[in-house]
Specification:
Layout (H helix, E strand, L loop, with lengths): L6 E6 L7 H14 L4 E6 L1 H4 L6 H18 L7 E4 L5 H10 L4 H5 L2 H9 L6 H16 L4 E3 L5 H17 L8 E3 L34 H10 L16 H13 L4 H7 L5 H27 L2 H30 L5
Parallel strand pairs: 1-2, 2-3, 4-5
Helix pairs in contact: 3-12, 4-7, 4-13, 7-8, 9-12, 10-11, 10-12
The protein binds adenosine-5'-triphosphate and L-tryptophanamide.
Length: 333
């Protein structure tokens, strides 16, 4: 892969423990993409507070996520790695973009509707404004591409709409970003209910494989995974959603194509299949967990990564914000 110089931006919220869905839908792709793009990766703690967080836990999860990024192979020497709240431009641009976004558009967002139902006691303005803050993240860095899981597609579409709207009213200001969705792994389903996405905030922890799960837990959860009434290991998301989900997981964790994965289990039963998927996942997670633990014991190093990341990110972000302030008529000294 050759370095293109194009800009790439993505982020994950430091909430709960990450699942293999987050890993496959987001972080795993980032590692390969850093060779090709000028990458900026954030820890989206400002998004995280749209759902109530316990302060000490939010702090802890922030460093854990940073260590995880690095343990997965995201290289702070190659890309910009920073904490969203360290760069004030996010909140500032979000405010401006709010005035280019309609209430009706935000009310229609699937994630807003889902999260409102889930947190009916706390449907705060931030939850509704979440996509605008995300648009601000992406547009500040003039990102050409944004690798995310398919559940974020709607947020990316609204980001594009807002950028185009602003560019049309004033003059070209923002790069209109493209979403980058992986073919396999962009939508990992819950192991106990393949009609739902695997989520780090799911009620039933047996449906999600967390990156912190030890080998026994991983094997046990896969053993319990829902398959279907047949006995053939075949990729058919329509009729065999459970088996197909497991095949997707196996395929990405063992770096094989779906066809190769199917061939591995020709003539084998679901029991052998689920054990093999569990082993492939546990084998990959073990070294990541060890490296994350090592990094977490070196807080000075992690703080250093965040400090230089924030400085680099701020330098880029403030240029875009200055351009926006000028165009909309904010008086400058
Ligand atoms: P929550 O359940 O707390 O809302 P989440 O599991 O959806 O969180 P996010 O922080 O919202 O996690 O997402 C981080 C990244 O992981 C995003 O790019 C998202 O698209 C991706 N992602 C999340 N769940 C999955 C999944 N099941 N399959 C593939 N990608 C996923
Ligand atoms: N909403 C995203 C996290 C996120 C993000 C971003 C992703 C916040 N800002 C900018 C890509 C670009 C999610 O994954 N839930």
């Amino acid at each position: 892969m050759e370095f293109t110089g194009k800009k790439l931006y993505s982020a994950v919220q430091p909430t709960n423990n990450l699942t293999i869905g987050n890993y496959l839908g987001a972080i795993k792709q980032w590692v390969g993409l850093q060779e090709e793009y000028d990458c900026t990766f954030a820890i989206a703690n400002m998004h995280a507070i749209t759902v109530r967080q316990e302060p000490a836990n939010l702090r802890k999860k922030t460093l854990e996520l940073l260590a995880l990024y690095i343990a997965c192979g995201v290289d702070p020497e190659k890309c910009t790695l920073y904490l969203q709240s360290h760069v004030p431009c996010h909140a500032e641009l979000a405010w401006v973009l709010n005035t280019f976004t309609y209430v009706g558009e935000m009310e229609r967002m699937t994630q807003f509707k889902d999260k409102s139902a889930k947190h009916a006691d706390n449907i705060n303005m931030g939850l509704m404004d979440y996509p605008v803050l995300m648009a601000a993240d992406i547009l500040l860095y003039q990102a050409d591409v944004v690798p995310v899981g398919l559940d974020q597609r709607q947020h990316l579409e609204i980001t594009r709409d807002i950028a185009i709207r602003f560019n049309n009213i004033y003059s070209p200001t923002f790069t209109v970003p493209e979403g980058l969705y992986m073919k396999v792994g962009a939508k990992i389903a819950d192991l106990s209910d393949p009609s739902k996405k695997m989520s780090k905030s799911a009620e039933n922890p047996n449906g999600s494989i967390f990156l912190t799960d030890d080998r026994d837990t991983v094997l046990r959860k896969f053993k319990r995974a829902v398959t279907d009434s047949g006995n053939e290991v075949r990729f058919d998301p329509e009729n065999k959603p459970g088996v197909s989900n497991l095949l997707s997981i196996y395929s990405v964790f063992s770096d094989k194509s779906i066809a190769e994965a199917e061939a591995d289990f020709a003539g084998k039963g679901y029991g052998d299949f689920k054990l093999a998927v569990g082993e492939a996942v546990a084998d990959k997670l073990a070294p990541i967990q060890a490296e994350q633990a090592r990094l977490l014991s070196d807080k000075a190093y992690l703080d250093n990564v965040l400090a230089s990341g924030a400085e680099k990110a701020y330098r880029t972000a403030k240029k875009t914000l200055a351009k926006v302030y000028k165009k909309i008529g904010f008086y400058q000294l």
